[in-house]
Design goal:
about 290 residues; mainly alpha
Length: about 290
């Protein structure tokens, strides 16, 4: 839309992070705030999102569609959590629209997010399970129809057709070389930007206290689980795309709060710990932007 006003496409691409960065932080905040009701956790997730892989790798590799897809994904799952809470069927309409926006922006992210929503629906109590699973299946069906229609009108491969081309990079042969694959994914691609021990470590730590009864934590667990099986069976490059699609900001926020709650020393020590982590992440992000 901006390029159609006469601005050079190159300038639109160069300045798009000015829009996508704040939107990612805002969408992360909305997702956590809607699911947990905790403004503190949501605020930390929003701050971490400013320095996350979506921003750094997004700028380095120019993954603008994938970056925008993650923004839509957070909004979609926030709406899904709101739907699960209120059980108001009219919410299905914006859910379908967000689902289609995600599909037309980045189909692979759409597949991961809809799988996440489906598994989350299966983990809910019986009284909610039928409504959520039926609605998710309907959104998947609508997405498949729209994807096919887009292929017929505009050309290009459908998601199913693109999936059929992944045979050489997917399977048991990749599982055998899992460790070399993940080493290359974290340390070679994107100049090693994905090898951020702080972000990955805090994300992993959050699973120590994960609770499926908690809506946000349950959704995050389903999100990671949905990516785990294909992650183990894909080559290193496709592993990087799955890491990019993980909900790193909320996971880091939960892991960081866990450490802060056990640090002792009152609010001062917890605040200093939060400051150190955020400044370290900011330093990493600044270095990534300089490399880009």
């Amino acid at each position: 839309m901006i390029a159609s006003l006469g601005v050079r496409p190159e300038q639109v691409v160069e300045f798009s992070p000015v829009i996508l960065g704040p939107l990612l932080s805002f969408s992360s905040f909305v997702f956590v705030r809607t699911g947990s009701g905790d403004k503190g956790t949501a605020a930390i997730a929003a701050l971490v999102a400013s320095f996350s892989f979506d921003v750094t790798v997004g700028i380095w590799a120019g993954y603008l569609a994938n970056w925008l897809g993650m923004i839509i994904a957070f909004f979609f799952l926030a709406a899904f959590l709101l739907f699960e809470k209120s059980k108001r069927k009219p919410i299905v309409i914006p859910l379908i629209l967000l689902s289609l926006a995600l599909l037309l922006t980045h189909p692979w992210t759409w597949a991961l997010i809809l799988t996440t929503a489906f598994f989350f629906a299966l983990t809910r109590p019986r009284i909610e399970r039928k409504l959520l699973t039926t609605s998710t299946i309907m959104m998947i069906a609508v997405g498949i129809i729209v994807d096919f229609a887009k292929n017929q009108v505009a050309g290009g491969a459908t998601l199913a057709g693109d999936l059929g081309t992944k045979g050489p990079v997917f399977g048991i042969s990749q599982l055998v070389t899992f460790w070399p694959n993940i080493s290359v994914a974290l340390n070679v691609f994107y100049d090693g930007l994905l090898g951020n021990v702080l972000l990955l470590g805090l994300s992993a730590l959050s699973f120590v206290t994960i609770r499926f009864r908690d809506k946000v934590e349950g959704m995050l667990a389903c999100w990671v689980a949905s990516a785990s099986v294909p992650f183990a069976l894909l080559n290193s490059f496709h592993q990087t795309r799955l890491i990019y699609d993980l909900p790193i900001p909320p996971l880091v926020a939960i892991g960081l709060l866990l450490i802060m709650s056990r640090a002792g020393g009152g609010n001062l020590r917890a605040s200093l710990l939060l400051l150190v982590v955020l400044l370290s992440c900011a330093n990493y992000a600044l270095e990534a932007v300089i490399q880009a």
